[in-house]
Amino acid sequence: MDILVIHLFNALLYASVLFLIAGGLSLIYGVMRIVNLAHGNLYALGAFATASAVGQWFGGSNSVWLYFLLPTGAVAAAAIGAVLEPTLLRPFYRRPEEYQLLVTFGLLMILEDVMRFIWGPYPVSATVLFEKMGSAQIGEFIYPRYNLLVIGIGGLAAFLLWAFIYRTRFGVVLRATSQDMRRASALGINVNAVYVQAFTIGCFMAGLAGAIVVPGQSAVLGMGVDALVLSFIVVVIGGLGSLEGALVGALIVGLLREFAISTFPELELAVLYLIAAVVLLVRPAGLFGRTT
Amino acid sequence: MTEIALAHPGVRSPLRTAVWAVPIAVLLVVVPWLLDSYRTIQLEYGLIFGIAGIGFNLLLGYTGLLSFGHAAYFGVGAYSVAFMVKYLHVSSMELFLLGSIVGTLIVTAVFGYVCVRYTRIFFSILALSLSQVLWSLAFKFFWVTGGTDGLRVPTPKLLGMAAGENEDKTYFLSHGYYYYVLAVFVICVAVMWLIVHSPFAKALQAIRDNETRARFVGLRIRSYRFVAFLVSGVFTGIAGALWVPLNGLVTPDAMVWTFSGEIVFMTVLGGFRNFTGPIVGAVVYNFLKDYAVGFTVYWQTFMGVILVVLVMVLPTGIVGSAKLLWGTARRRLAR
Prior knowledge:
A: mainly alpha; two-stranded antiparallel ribbon; 12 helices; about 5% strand; B: mainly alpha; ABC transporter involved in vitamin B12 uptake, BtuC
């Protein structure tokens, strides 16, 4: 029985991280209809930034304050997002989708090298945060407390995002822009500002995912590219542009992956992609997608 | 973008095509004597990717579907050859080509059946996801595929003839094999030329430009897209089969989705609104990447910047821009 609880926690852990990445991707698509292929790199960048803030600059210190450095990665990714949207992406909203994908693919290549340039080819880690929290006793097993914190952050992020989008004035503006950009613009909404803000929030989420992952595992080059493809699966299952979809998709992928790993590990990834394909066959727009 | 397609009807007199096609063909034939073996092999890679490029472009340029998963079909072609070597002990290049055509045909039939139900971004993502299924299988089933170590492929027999006993492998690859690749390349280009000038491709273009009208005219859209997908995949598979003996090894990297991105890159670099664009793009891309990799470890930045600038400033690619310049120059001269 306890082993089931452990599996469930692992699934939730994975789902929390995936939700943050895929949620950001989905939010950006929902508002500006752009699939950002470099989104995974912002996740990796968040991981690297937090790892160097915690592990390298303040590696010697041992205080609880280190935990306040955790969001460094999220802030770094958000800052980059705020710069990228107006400079690189804005000229492409009127162009066909192929060009948007290509320009973000170019961005992916550049960001990958930027990280190689800043942090070098070696893994960077911030394990001190992971070790400091120790382990919790669950039945006869022990489980790292830090993982529980990640699950908590994932849940909190989902709740805050929901509150932000459905309970604030800015959320109304965001949804209006997403539904009909021209009409929103005609009603006096500064669409360009909304785009920058939405893109920044999306990048913040990706960066946060990287930041909370990095105490548990090292930041390595190429982690962004892998994460992007996984978050594609999530948004394909949940529906591109839907945050509820991203949440449900992340939970499905998290549970399925945990199940696949414990039963037939070789098929772990293949199962996920196949599920995505099956969902697309049955419900083309994803479980929560809008058909436009 | 439809105006571009309409402005150039695409059918030209064979004589005018010959004016530039013949010198290029002659040049390609004498290349092994003009360039050193290293550059010849780079050009060989370029020609192979050119086959993948024209296959890919049947979908992107003519059907309007952007596949971010074409590395899968390239990889299936390559792995078909490697499996034939490992399990069937075949060494004939013709059988390799045949085997990889059959292999990619099966895979593209399954994937195509799923993918062509969608268009635009959903098509791209679905193609990408499905290609990653194959990548993960190649990656995880190491006892079949060799995992990340890959599978080795020795020098094949060309037209039943093995390479000479004491023939240097580099010499073989840059001469005998070069002509083999060139021959297959010419056949592929000729076949694709016939395809894109057939009523079939005109129907694809009609579907690309206006799906609803094409349906009213009575075109069965999904089956047209499906056939285009099949042809496109098979061309890419042939490229994969030709690539393995040259590379000597196939690893899951031949299937990973960023390699699909490179195929897209090549096609856009050359220009996807015309027939020769992908070929020019593939050759140029290959030399460009080779140069960048030799020049700096940050070659990805170099290529990424080129891609971004290209998409921003020259969306019609090298060939498209050259045609535009040529047209302007001619009008100036005529005045």
